[in-house]
């Protein structure tokens, strides 16, 4: 009840809450989940689903763990498949139009999963000799999390590896200016270290 209504519960709260549970049971029946049930016992509510039920949010969490495990083994092909599973699920909107602290918490977890999966694709693409594709994935990370310095670091390294030192330095300037203007901070020592290493290395011709 606290999750649903917080400090503003409706009148006859228990009756309204029972109606919510009844609607949920009806939705489960419409979804042909005949073996599913919502149990209420001793003030606790539990959802029982058939053992073979596929839950997308669990699948995304599992896929990103498998992706990162495959990357540690150097198996980029397997990692690519798992990363894309996680991305497809994490990109879906979660309860669009609804707002509540628990909803925001779930959205934050999905965003974190998406960023981890995109970072995996950055590493996979770079390892496969596809720096331009890796750059696209790193840029997408910054669309989701514009202050993530590791994405700026990846972009700088990728541009530098392609021989485009000037673009790599522009990425650092973009990072520095955004952090300063919007957060009032400067880039981390790690980001500055990547920048200095590139700045002292001339372009390849």
**In percent, how much strand structure appears in the residues?**
under 5%
Topology pattern, helix = H, strand = E:
HHEEHHHHHHH
C-alpha-based Rg, rounded: 23 Å
Q: CATH first level of the largest domain: which class?
A: Mainly Alpha
Query: Structural class, judged by helices and strands?
Result: mainly alpha
The largest sheet has its strands arranged as 1-2
Spans of at least 5 consecutive residues whose pLDDT stays below 50 are none
Spell out the CATH superfamily of the largest domain. Answer: Tetratricopeptide repeat domain
- For the terminal residues, how far apart are their CA atoms? 66 Å
| CATH topology category name of the largest domain | Serine Threonine Protein Phosphatase 5, Tetratricopeptide repeat
**How many separate domains?**
2
User: What general outline do the C-alpha atoms trace?
Assistant: elongated
CATH architectural grouping of the largest domain: Alpha Horseshoe
Overall strand count:
2
How many strands, which pairing sense, and closed or not: the largest β-sheet? 2 strands, antiparallel
Q: What is the helix content?
A: 55-70%
Provide keyphrases for this structure.
205 residues, 2 strands, mainly alpha, 2 domains, two-stranded antiparallel sheet, 9 helices, elongated, single chain, Serine Threonine Protein Phosphatase 5, Tetratricopeptide repeat
